[in-house]
Amino acid sequence: xxxxxxxxxxxxxxxxxxxxxxxxxxxxxxxxxxxxxxxxxxxxxxxxxxxxxxxxxxxxxxxxxxxxxxxxxxxxxxxxxxxxxxxxxxxxxxxxxxxxxxxxxxxxxxxxxxxxxxxxxxxxxxxxxxxxxxxxxxxxxxxxxxxxxxxxxxxxxxx
Length: 159
Fold this sequence. Notes:
CATH class of the domain at 30-113: Mainly Alpha
Strand content: 15-25%
CATH architecture of the domain at 30-113: Orthogonal Bundle
Low-confidence stretches: none
Distance between the termini: 54 Å
Number of strands: 3
CATH topology of the domain at 30-113: Arc Repressor Mutant, subunit A
Structural class: alpha+beta
C-alpha cells in the first residue's frame, strides 16, 4: 500500500471510532428552546386552540423567570411551526376566532396544568385506523352453490 492509502485508512478508522465512541458526560445542548417550551408547557387538548401571540406571551414570561433560553420574537415564530408539528403533529391554522377577528395559531393544543406530569401519549398523536374493517365471521358456512373454477391460459407455452 502507498502512504496515501495508509493515511486514508487511518483517517477512516478514526472517523469510525469517533462515531461508535461512548457519549460524553455532558452532551451539547442542541434541543431548540421553542420545542422544549412546547413539550413542557403545552398539551394536546381537543376543542382548544392557542394563537401564536398567546404562545409568545407565555414563552416570554417563562424566559423572564429563567426557566428557558430566550430567542427573539421573530425567531420564536419561525421555530414554533416546526416545534408544534414535531411535538403534537399539528399544523398552523390561519383562521382562529378571537374578539378582534381571525388570527393565526394552533388547534387541538392547550396549556398544561403545572401539577401534571408529561405522558408519552400526549406527545405522540393518536393512531386512528384509516379504514373500518368488517367484523370477521367466526363461524363461516360454505356457499350453497360453489362457483366452478376454470383456468384460462393467457400466454403460449414455452418450448
